[in-house]
Design brief:
This protein is of the alpha+beta class and 493 residues long. 36% of the residues lie in helices and 21% in strands. It has four domains: 58 residues, Nucleic acid-binding proteins (OB fold (Dihydrolipoamide Acetyltransferase, E2P)); 55 residues, Roll (SH3 type barrels), CATH 2.30.30; 185 residues, P-loop containing nucleotide triphosphate hydrolases (Rossmann fold), CATH 3.40.50.300; 143 residues, Orthogonal Bundle (Helicase, Ruva Protein, domain 3), CATH 1.10.8. The structure holds adenosine-5'-triphosphate and magnesium ion.
Length: 493
């Protein structure tokens, strides 16, 4: 009996060893991706060797589906199947959906692949499996959608000193939208877009938001949308996929534009719509402009989508973008005038505790000194040539912006708060404003690249552009403070 048991144990051990030897000596298994399943066969892309039609494995019935990873033995029979694998997978953008295949773009190249998810649409992002032949997953729209914000609440009276500009925006943009039918009878349709240009901090973004808000309000599209994106973001998101990004922005807009108004705001537009073929332009740039044109030209007459671009280098925008029927309005948002500065101060000082408001005196008296100082002809920065000769000067009015005025009021508020909390005088006083102005101007003057091209035009007239370029190349330098001015100053009144 004991002998029999020992024999059985030996036999069992023998069997185990045999199967282990078999396992160790068998050729390695291969792996592949299931491209399609038919009645009798399964089409498999075997990694590294191509596509095969392989008989079904009944024992795995139902487990082998399109997109699955399968294990194959040396005879290329399926021995196991697992879920999709996204190791080594790449993200591509869907160009076009056809009945049995989809066209995707990956790193600037187009190819046809199969998709396992039935509801992909152009503009979606999909994950390609390691074979690169199958789209195995659609990324959630959340990841691919552009920031669809609700329209921000900026009524026109939150913007100071741009009365004329706002008037022309209302008549050229708002009016045709509100009275669409009347305009249509005269063969005219609302504009598709506008370019807002001007120095930094003077209200381009603010105006774009106000346009969106007031359009939504006056056209009864209270649930309007605002898509805000910076040029460099379009460029950087997936290198080489920039034109797909442009397409996706408009795709997102079209999805919601049915019934709602959508304002697409592209800030720092010069970074992507720059003149084609210029030294800085590359293939990536070159493909964005045509894509934008396709999108804009494709918008129907009755669309509810309006594109606003903003830049402080209006000269670098590709003129093709600015042709009629596209972004065909150019709106300058300049530095505030003296009256504008009073107005902007007024907006930010409104509702703030202030000192010394006697009967009949206006809030303006508080800012009088500061505003007059900003608009005095005192030169603060002089342009000199390599011989040290002064060619002209910038004054504070060439630096001032709405953003700076807001900064001055914020700073003055802090001074007043500090004082009040230690038992001092309550409210903002003239001294607070002056002190804040000093600090703000000093800090801004330290930034050498402060003046943009339009400021050079304001100071030097027709020669502005040329001198600005010469300064950028290092030929003309700045000397802080006053200098001997040799050429007549312009635009300083
Ligand atoms: N005309 C103005 N009236 C009231 N506030 C202003 C005005 N201009 C600028 N501001 C204030 O400055 C902030 C910055 O302005 P905004 O972002 O609109 O400038 P921008 O022209 O878009 O500048 P950038 O070129 O730097 O983008 C605004 O949020 C607002 O608080
Ligand atoms: Mg801005």
């Amino acid at each position: 009996m004991a002998k029999n048991e020992a024999m059985e144990a030996l036999q069992r051990e023998n069997l185990l060893l045999k199967s282990e030897v078999e396992r160790l000596s068998s050729p390695p298994f291969r792996a592949g991706t299931v491209l399609d399943t038919g009645k009798k066969t399964v089409r498999v892309f075997v990694d590294g060797s191509g596509t095969y039609e392989i008989g079904h494995n009944e024992s795995l019935n139902g487990k082998v589906k399109r997109g699955c990873r399968v294990t194959l033995n040396k005879d290329l029979a399926i021995v196991d199947s697992s879920e999709f694998s996204d190791l080594g997978s790449q993200v591509a953008t869907v160009d076009e959906v056809e009945p049995n295949r989809i066209r995707v773009e990956l790193k600037g190249e187009h190819k046809y692949v199969l998709s396992i998810s039935p509801d992909v649409r152009a503009g979606d992002e999909v994950v390609l499996d390691s074979s690169g032949l199958l789209a195995i997953e659609k990324l959630s729209r959340k990841k691919t959608k552009y920031n669809l914000e609700r329209v921000p609440q900026i009524p026109w009276d939150r913007i100071g000193g741009l009365e004329e500009t706002i008037k022309s925006i209302r008549s050229e943009i708002e009016h045709p939208f509100v009275h669409r039918e009347v305009y249509a009878r005269y063969g005219s349709s609302p504009i598709k877009g506008a370019l807002l240009f001007g120095p930094p901090g003077c209200g381009k973004t603010l105006v774009a938001k106000a346009i969106a808000y007031n359009l939504a309000k006056t056209t009864g599209h209270e649930d309007g949308h605002f898509i805000s994106i910076k040029g460099p973001e379009i460029l950087n998101m997936w290198l080489g996929n920039s034109e797909a990004n442009v397409r996706r922005i408009y795709q997102s807009a079209r999805e919601v534009a049915n019934g709602a108004l959508v304002v697409i705001f592209i800030d720092e537009a010069e970074s992507i719509f720059r003149v084609r073929g210029s030294s800085v332009s590359t293939d990536a740039y070159d493909s964005i402009v045509p894509q934008l044109l396709t999108e804009m030209d494709g918008l129907e007459e009755n669309h509810n989508i309006i594109t606003l671009l903003a830049t402080n280098r209006e000269d670098s925008i590709d003129p093709a973008v600015l042709r009629p029927g596209r972004i065909d309005r150019k709106i300058k948002i300049p530095r505030p005038s003296r009256e504008g500065a009073y107005e902007i101060f007024g907006i930010y000082l409104k509702d703030k505790p202030v000192q010394g408001l006697f009967k009949g005196s206006k809030r303006e008296s508080l800012t009088h000194e500061a505003v007059e100082r900003i608009y005095s002809p005192e030169p603060v920065c002089t342009v000199v040539n390599p011989h040290g000769e002064a060619l002209g000067s910038f004054t504070y009015r060439n630096m001032i912006s709405g953003a700076m005025i807001k900064g001055i009021v914020d700073r003055a508020c802090r001074y007043a708060i500090e004082r009040e909390t230690v038992g001092g005088t309550i409210g903002i006083g003239k001294e607070d404003i002056s002190r804040a102005l000093d600090t703000e101007l000093r800090e801004n003057l330290e930034l050498d690249q402060f003046f943009v091209e339009s400021d050079w035009n304001d100071v030097f007239g027709d020669k502005g552009k040329q001198m600005y370029e010469a300064h950028k190349r290092g030929y003309l330098q700045f000397r802080k403070g006053p200098g001997q001015i040799q050429t007549a100053e312009r635009g300083q009144q």
